[in-house]
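Handoff note, outgoing to incoming analyst
You'll be picking up this chain. Sequence as last confirmed:
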Amino acid sequence: MHTSAIFPLFYLPPVSYFSALNAQNYEFLLEKEEHFPKQTFRNRTRVYSPNGPLDLFLPVIKGSKYHTKMKDVRISYDFKWQRLHWLSMESCYRNSPYFEYYEDELSPFFQKRYEFLFDYNLELLQWIFKQLKKSPVLEFTTEYEKDIPAELDFRNKIQFKNAEQTTPQKPYTQVFGERHGFLPNMSIVDLLFNQGPQAKHYL
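Most recent structure output, in case you need it:
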């Protein structure tokens, strides 16, 4: 019987992803064998911009969208998405309390070229764990399992289209909160830039 929770590997995952990991005591498998699904957090993230929620899309090489395993999906560099994403981070969070605290370590992820989406997301996830003072043992699926208990299957629970309609979150101070109010379930970087080392206690 399957006993480990299975999580997808997201690009700068939303806060709810880490809340779910925390609820599992960080005992989980990362899904490596699934076919890459479109329109999910696997290659998108959501940040809080001066105009409200801003979705950042990480392009993949054409053909990766059709029955390609997640571990084999390649990143496209046909346009300078890394520069765009980093400029967006700066415009969204330059005035946050902790942007400069994380800037030097995070910015190289938007300069170095990675071939595979899985490898890129994994290195970002490891960096995030480091900031949250977590050191889970990272293990991966070796085959795609269809029949696992629903309470352990997180592969489709955290949906991009319904990202803000998840479990209610306790508000924390956000840069543009006075303008748009509290926006729940932004990328984990929103929590880090606004709460800094205290982010681990929020989760």
